[in-house]
Every structure is written in C-alpha cells, then in structure tokens.
Amino acid sequence: MQDKASRAPGWIRTVLLLLALLTSPILCCSGTQLLDALPSAWLPGPLDFMVNLFESDARVENKTSQTLYLTAITTTYGDPRVISQNIAFRQRNIPVKPQNSVLLQYDSADFPLAGIVVCRKDGDCRLLPVNSSQVYELHSYESLERLEPSWLTAIQSSPLYNYSNILTIGFSLVPIILFSGWLFLNRREKSITG
C-alpha cells in the first residue's frame, strides 16, 4: 500500500516528458543566441561562418586619460538607432577605461555601423566617424566631430541594459528542468518497483 502511495502516477511522468519535448525548441533557440553572443575568435571557422554570417565588429581603443562611454549607431532605417550588443549587458554608453579597448559588434547586412558616439561622464557626446578600418584609436576627445541632436535623442531613448539575453537563458532552462523531473520520477519509480 505504501509503495503505491509513494509512486508518482504515470500520467505525471508522461506530461513532464511531453512538455520537455514541446519546449525543446526554446533550448535550441537560446543555444543559437548564446553562440551568437560569443566573440568570433572563440568559434571554430565553419561554426563562426554559420552563426555570425554578416556579423562585423569594431574595436575602439581609448588612448586618452579619461573613461569614455561608447554607443554604436546605425541609420539604416532613416533615423539613428542604437545597435544592440550581443556580447554586452549594456546596450549603450559602454565604458572603456583609459588605455583599454572595447569590441562593438553589428550586423553588416541589416544594421551597418553609421558612427560611434563617444560620451564623457558629464553627458557631453561627440561622434567618431566610421571608415573602412575595424580598429579605431581615440587619442583626443576634443578632436571628434560634434554630435547631431537626433543621435543624442536616439541614445537617450534607448534602454541602457539588454534584459532579453537573461530572459532567453532563463527560458532555456524550462525544458532542462522538465526533462530532469521526468528522469527523477522514472528513476524513483524503478527504485521502488525494483
């Protein structure tokens, strides 16, 4: 009698397995996003080509004596927009300390880089124009071009942090938890009956 009471009904195990299978595409999508967030240098050649087909990056080196804050901007859709960064939790005003560098990523097909906004702590911002180089050295903040007001508005209206990466990773745990629950109940059932 006690054995029957301690066993989980078979329908619970079936539902857990069915839900784990139905939610498994979430795990695949979050895995792809995780691969996309990794720097290109970490991925083997064929995998990098498949995941980051049109991805480009720009390395900005801060040669000044002050901390600067960088934001990648695109104008593909007319108005300036902040390019979200897959490898960073911050989407705009990414800090780069003196004598350090930061890597900004962008999709060269859908969101080509139109410029990099460079700001100081006091909110004063300038424009680092884009050229064919993928490495930009900042030797003097004052030598940068003045920033158009529409670009500053685009930066201020964009969220500072990217919570979607955290949510995606959280949702990817759902099929793993469901499958683990199914495995646990199966092993428990076998230990009780065995």
Fraction of helical residues: 40-55%
Level-2 CATH architecture of the largest domain: Sandwich
Main sheet attributes: strand count, strand direction, barrel closure: 6 strands, antiparallel
Q: How many runs of DSSP E, i.e. beta strands?
A: 9
Can you offer a commentary on this structure?
It is elongated, with a radius of gyration of 24 Å. It is 41% helix and 22% strand. The chain has 2 domains: 2-38 and 166-193; 53-161, Immunoglobulin-like (Sandwich), CATH 2.60.40. The strands form 2 sheets. Strands 2, 3, 4, 6, 7 and 9 form a 6-stranded antiparallel sheet that branches. It has a 3-stranded mixed sheet with strand order 5-1-8, with no helix packed on it. The longest helix has 30 residues, at 164-193. The protein has 194 residues and is of the alpha+beta class.
List the main descriptive attributes of the protein structure presented here.
194 residues, alpha+beta, Immunoglobulin-like, 2 domains, six-stranded antiparallel sheet, three-stranded mixed sheet, 9 strands, elongated
Layout of strands and helices, then pairs:
Blueprint (H helix, E strand, L loop, with lengths): L1 H5 L3 H28 L7 H7 L3 E8 L5 E7 L6 E2 L11 E3 L4 E7 L7 E5 L5 E5 L5 E4 L6 E2 L2 H9 L6 H30 L1
Parallel strand pairs: 1-8
Antiparallel strand pairs: 1-5, 2-3, 2-4, 2-6, 6-7, 7-9
Helix pairs in contact: 2-5
Question: What's this entry about, in short?
Answer:
The chain has 194 residues and is α+β, with helices and mostly antiparallel strands.
